[in-house]
Every structure is written in structure tokens, then in C-alpha cells.
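Sample intake sheet
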Amino acid sequence: MAVTVFKLNGQFLHVAEGLARPAGLTAAHWQVLGAVLRMPLPVAGIAREMGITRQAVQRIADILAANGMVEYLPNPAHRRAKLVAPTEQGREAVRRIGPAHAAFADRLCEALGDEWAADVHRLLRELSMTLDALASEEDPA
């Protein structure tokens, strides 16, 4: 399973790079921006949500901040862990990706069939939740 998922991750990253490039983003930039579109999060929260390291998120968030795509806001829950929030420029970059992303998703669902695509999505979410549960059993902290 892991080798197949690693390959699938690479394939999705390749597609994401192609979708993000016209908006001036990388797949990693898009991933971090996407994590904070609904609400600002601290770097550690983005890392947990996306399943990547805090250090990688910090590096990307700093690049996005330097490019005016995100800003750091005070975090009422933690004095030192600032919240990452998208700027209007960051939101606009993600909006520019939207049409091509939707077109690709439609092509993928058409190729798989809508019902099978929904089943795959459900199974992948269940696999992710199961892996989270197993990881929390191993590391209760």
C-alpha cells in the first residue's frame, strides 16, 4: 500500500505543480495557502493538517509572506506561535487555480466514474484516519 500511495502522491504533486504554476505558485505554496483559506492557523496546525513537517511549513509560509501571499497575525491562544492568514493576493492566486483544478477533477471523475471516484475518496479518508489513530496509539503525546 505504502509504495502505491508514494507513487500516487508523486503523481498528484506533478499535477498540482502544473495547476499552480500559472498562478505563480508551487504545489507546496498552494498546499499551505489552501490550509488557511477557511481560517488562520499556526504553522504547527498547518503541518498537522497537511501531514508535513513544521519546518517545511515554516519555510513555505516565510516565502509566501515575503511574496505578499500570507501574513502573520497575533495568536490569542499562544503568544509566540503566530497565525498564518492568506492576504487578498494569496486568495486571488488560489482563485486563479480554481478553473483548471475543477476541469482536471472533472476529467478524473469522468475517467473513474463519479461513484467510483466518491468511493476512492471515502476509502482514502478512512485510510488516513486509521493511520492517524495508529500513530496516536504509538505516540500518546
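Comment: Residues 5 and 11 are 10 Å apart (CA to CA). The mean pLDDT is 94.
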